[in-house]
Amino acid sequence: MGYVIMTEWLNTSQFSVEHRPRHKSHKRKDLDSRVYASDEARLRAKKKADELQSILRSEFPSVVKPMKQSHVTGGFWLGFPLPFCRKHLPKHDEEIKLVDEDGHEWMTKYLSAKSGLSSGWRRFSIDHKLVDGDALVFQLIKPTTFKVHIIRVYGPGDHEILDRSQKAINVKRIKADIDSNSQREGGENQIKCQSLDTAYENAEEINMTILSEAASYSENDSDNPEPEVLDGIRLLESVIQFDQVKGIEDFTIQVDGLVVDSEIPKHLKTKYYDLCCTQKCFLHDHLIEGMNCKLVAGIISETVNIADAIKASNLTTPMHHFALWDKSLLTFVKLGMRVDFLRAHLDKLTNIAFKSKESAEIRRYLRARGERDRVEEEMRVLEAKMLELEKTKRELDDEIDTLKADVVEHENEFRKAVNAPW
């Protein structure tokens, strides 16, 4: 099981000027230059990739992967659909080679339990300047070698224009939000505005991706390359209180006068609605004002996936996973999310799991399971060796049958010579 958890960037329970970081990391520069593909461009690249896949040689399995921010920035993790992994990829961790269209090679680490590429994928992504919306066709030309075909979402000119415009939009929006808050609420809000600036700088460094933990429990989620989203961000027509929400049809995610449903896939929105229903309130209602819509959407998505991961946990779940989930939830609490109930539930599970892991029976069970896994792996190796030996034996049998007639003929000739009169 694997997890992609957002890094905790709050070290105190309140924001203040004194707590602002004094350095500028290279990550901020990279995140400022992010390119977010439009839905139209993303679909166009995906369509071209599907067309390319359709003409590839059918004897080599292939899969199309549209690139998201989690694939090309921050986390640099690439997961494949579970059915494809189970059918075509190794059942254990393995080095997998990526070969680009120019024949250059990159070595990556395939993690079987996580159904994806980890170490080495970051270098491939950076070297090929992959961006959000690019579509890649992975063609398995050997058991551990992918031929990678890249369909660019934008040409070089488009990329440069979007690069500049995205950066300008980010800077203008943050500045406008801060200035507006400062003028409206005066001195008391001055610290809050400075806090927002600090929060935004740090928050953009968060790898806001969907937990691969939740995906590893759901085959359907892993095989869904592009979640369906709602129509675009729009202005809020009227404020709706939670007690006015009668069903998912009435449920909208409101942030600073905007409806941001378009930033959250439908299946995550439905799960988030269920979470809100358990607490009878909008969990995001008290988030810091002026936060970027994509950041808010990422926090909500991450909250849902942490909740899913908690529900899917068991006594064999490593303790550090519980700690990572709690660290992320604590960050959300400091931002204003009402997720204390998840932390309380997680704390209860952590205590039970800790006591269970101290049990002698649990330790024996884990040792026995590990030993069984080792034996099964040895059996797979021996079975593969047996198949190889059987193949070699058949080849030798065929060779013996082919040569036997010549050997008999020579033997008969020799016997005649031996038995000839002196």
TrEMBL record:
PROSITE patterns: B3 (PS50863). SUPFAM superfamilies: DNA-binding pseudobarrel domain. Residues 365-420 form a coiled coil. Keywords: Coiled coil, DNA-binding, Nucleus, Transcription, Transcription regulation. It is found in: Nucleus. Its main location: nucleus. Pfam families: B3. One of its GO terms (cellular component) is nucleus. InterPro entries: B3_DNA-bd, DNA-bd_pseudobarrel_sf, REM16-like. Signal peptide: none annotated. Residues 63-154 form the TF-B3 domain. It comes from the Eukaryota. Gene3D superfamilies: DNA-binding pseudobarrel domain. One of its GO terms (molecular function) is DNA binding. This is B3 DNA binding domain. It comes from Dillenia turbinata. The lineage of its organism: Eukaryota, Viridiplantae, Streptophyta, Embryophyta, Tracheophyta.
